[in-house]
Amino acid sequence: MTTRPFKAACVQMTSGSDVAANIDVASALVREAAAGGAQLITTPEVTHLMVLKSTELFAKTKPQSEDAGVHAFSALAEELKRWLLIGSLAIRVSDGKVANRSFLFAPDGSIAASYDKMHMFDVDLPSGESYRESANYQAGHSRTLSGLPWGHVGLTVCYDLRFPYLYRELAKDGADFLTIPAAFTRLTGEAHWHVLMRARAIETGCFVIAPAQTGNHDCGRETFGHSLIVNPWGEVLSDGGTDIGVSYAEIDPGKVANARAQIPSLNVKPPFH
């Protein structure tokens, strides 16, 4: 493990209902990130399929062993010799449920880690939008931490962001970096995205890497964009704005220990435990 700085990238895209087309767009942006010198490349939640109708979701999802995205992104990581975090893929786990599963591919193409989103997005928004993720998705039950050449990364997905205890536990498990790929709605993004991402970084003394979906999707959703990389002091190192593309930041792993030495809150046992 090295403490040398490295370059991370967030891919920002507008996924739709065509799995093959989404894979092609994501792959092109991953290649752009690799050409730009990124050693860790991340993509948003639901990278290869953004749909709302249950019938369409189940018609277009496959078990992990048969999923086109798993095979394509494994091969891409191996070809580019990069660490590749695919924010999430919709993976069929039974006849009636899909997992919202994040994948970390190593530079040899192997799956270094995977994580099923724990917290389901079941909400009714003031705009009239209503989401019931639990109707189709099976929640995960385990935290996931994986080694990288520069430290350890904790994997999470989107709505997990609103549950700070998960991030505290990941930090106490040894995470130096937190990935939070997302498809935040425009309404909630405008209100909460930046402040919550900065808060998770500050609370844990971790780098936060949050690639995002952006714009108007063919299923009718509108997402916020603004892929972020935030340092352990809560400073935004890069913001992807609202355009499709790639944003970068240099990550200095030494900043983790520095931030935690100044604010040693992880060492304090909560009084209610």
State the main characteristics.
single chain, 273 residues, alpha/beta, Nitrilase/N-carbamoyl-D-aminoacid amidohydrolase, six-stranded mixed beta sheet, 6 helices
**Could you say how many structural domains there are in total?**
1
Structure class: alpha/beta
CATH architecture: 4-Layer Sandwich
> How many extended strands?
16
The CATH H-level superfamily is Carbon-nitrogen hydrolase
Uncertain regions: pLDDT < 50 for 5+ in a row? none
| Separate helix tally | 6
- Bin the helical content: 25-40%
Question: What global shape is seen?
Answer: globular
Largest sheet: 6 strands, mixed
Q: What distance separates the N and C termini?
A: 33 Å
Tell me the strand order in the biggest sheet: 5-4-3-2-1-16
Order of H and E elements: EHEHHEEEEEEEHEHEEEEEEH
Strand composition percent: 25-35%
Mean pLDDT: 96
Radius of gyration: 17 Å
CATH topology, what is it called?
Nitrilase/N-carbamoyl-D-aminoacid amidohydrolase
CATH class value: Alpha Beta
Structure overview:
This protein has helices at about 20-35, 55-60, 70-80, 165-175, 185-205, 255-260, and strands at about 5-10, 40, 85-90, 100-105, 110-115, 120-125, 130, 145-150, 150-155, 175-180, 205-210, 215, 220-225, 230, 235-240, 245-250. The chain is α/β, with parallel strands linked by helices and about 270 residues long. It has one domain (about 5-265): Carbon-nitrogen hydrolase (Nitrilase/N-carbamoyl-D-aminoacid amidohydrolase, 4-Layer Sandwich). The chain has a six-stranded mixed β-sheet. Strand 8 and strand 9 form a beta hairpin. The longest helix is centred in the C-terminal third of the chain and has 19 residues, at about 185-205. It is globular and about 50 Å long. The model has no long low-confidence stretch (mean pLDDT about 95).
